[in-house]
Sequence to fold (715 residues):
Amino acid sequence: MILDYSMPEMDGQAVAERMKRLKAAVPIVMLSAYVNLPRETSALVDRCLTKGEPTPVLLELIANLLRERNGKRL
Amino acid sequence: MGVSSGMETRSFKRTLRRAILAPLGIAAIVILALLAQIRFLDARTRWVEHTDQVISLAERIYRIRIDQETSFRAYLLTGDTQFLDMFHQRREQAYVFEQQLQQLVADNEEQKTRNQAAVSANRDWVVWADNVLAHGRTGKDIGNIRVQLQGKELMDRYRLARGEFITREQQLREERLAASRGAFRHTTWGVVFLGTLLAGLFAVLEKKQLVSLSGAFNASLDAAETSATDAKRQHDWLSTVLKSIGDAVIATDSSGLVVFMNPVAERLTGWTSGEAQGKVLAQIFHIMSEETHEIVEDPVQKVRRMNSVVGLANHTVLISKTGQEIAIDDSAAPIRAADSTIAGIVLVFRDVTQQRRLEAALRSNERLALAGRLSASIAHEINNPLDTVVNLLFLLEQRTKNMPELGESIARVQREVYRVTQISKNMLSLHRASRNPSDVKVSDLLDGVVALIEETIAKGRRKIQVEHGFAGTIRGFPAELRQVFTNVIKNAVEATAEGGEIRITSRPAVEAKRSGVRVDVEDNGAGISPETRARLFTPFVTTKEERGTGLGLWVSRSIVEKHRGTITLKNRLGRRGTTVSIFLPLDPPCLNYADDAAFAERAPVSHAQGRPGELPRDKTEADSSGSGDQDTDPSDDSFAA
Fold:
């Protein structure tokens, strides 16, 4: 799950909390234009990434996350 | 106190008056008594003299009468008329003397009678003698014994009468002499007695008076002493208060000449109280406007004009005797005499240099904070559209893999866009307060700072050598540590002349039983004098005059101390220049927040900032070709938890 932080009505923090409650196993990547996200947000989600990073960085991050998850499953 | 002192003085005067007047009165009475006594004595003496006079006169008369008789008898015997000359000649004289004597004894009836008896007896004899003479002239015998016996009888009667008179007078003389002697004796005793009495009275009275006088005198002396002591104590106290005041105080007389300065005023103006005494205030208290350096109105004139307490214009600087400028804040007030005329002016001022600097620093901090917030929001606004651009470019790149020319252009756009991303990120992180400590690789940190400094300040004209003797990481706040090394290395560069050398070495070290890293920054510049060195870590102390804020080393030390490290500064042994030595422990206690520890390990934000490949970011930023490398840099490790 890739989430933005700054959103109308409900911010990324609130969304991530609900999603973790529903399905904790789904990894969440917080992709925000803010560099310094609140601590509780970074603690809650699996990864944080600043917007504007080259696309391969995001792709590799996702790949790593999946690999990790598969490894755990094995 | 004043009233009692007045009373003392009055009582003292009264006693003094009594002490002088009483003896004077007694002395006057005694003198009067003595005078009376002396007058009495004098009268007695005069009586004696009078008696002497009477006796002497009576004896003269008697001798004359005897002479007359003798010469008359000689005539009777010889018949020679020559002998009658004496008898006739002395007759008149004897008569006059007898008249005088009668007057002298007029006051004494007894003697008067005796004198008259004597005179009458003599007259009888004279009558007889005249008869005899008359007979003689008629030729009768007058030389016979019968005649002579007649004359003798008459003369004897005279002798007896006069003798009685003289004897009585001599008796009187004896009596009067005795009386006079008695009077003299009385007077003598009187003098002795009165003198003794006077002395005794004096002694008694004076003793009493002197006791009360000395009491009154002592009391008035004590009162005077007490009031003098009180006045002095009060004066001392006031003077101590003025001297102890933390603000500078200068007082002038009505014409604006300095009469008093306290130690703070001496320190600020650079003039000693002695030097300033009697000088015109403007010479001692030389003030001007901080911004324009225009002369500010003389406070003496201003107080006179306003006739009340006046404050100085804002931002006034005092130029001390040594030419130092001190920002001051002051007020001037008239010193009013009892009749409310201006007797002088008192100036109170204080050094506000530090305060002004702090205000300035605060303002600049506020600006920084504002700049931080601004850049954060700007970066956010830039990052959002950039992300779209980056992703679209990626898609474009995927689709143009078989079009090499286009692919090349897209790769270039990607590099430039990446650069923009980095700039925006840096801009943000520069102003971001570090909240969480992370592992900092010292060599990367040093390389990054050196690269930035070489590019900006050193500009290749100074040689900076870095020797990494420590390859590990320490726990800390990277942004703050970067500031420490930036400050220290910048100082070293600025301390050296063109072509100077700076050597930076890191090595493992142990300090206070804690292992860590020591980084030495050596330069071959001018070095620092011991006096300056002692003050270097104080805020606002700078050797760079206009260019420095004087905050660098102070801030650096507080950061190092926050990391439980030490920073020392010493001159290089045997060589020119300075060495700044910084020790940082590997894992400083109390630096981590308990809940931060777990977070920091997996904090992607911090990692994104501190990725090894990215750390010399300043260098990357300056080096436009660096951006391309980032694309191929495997970033997996940095994201692996």
Q: What stands out?
A: The CA atoms of residues 29 and 47 of chain A lie 5 Å apart. Chain A is about 50% helix and 15% strand.
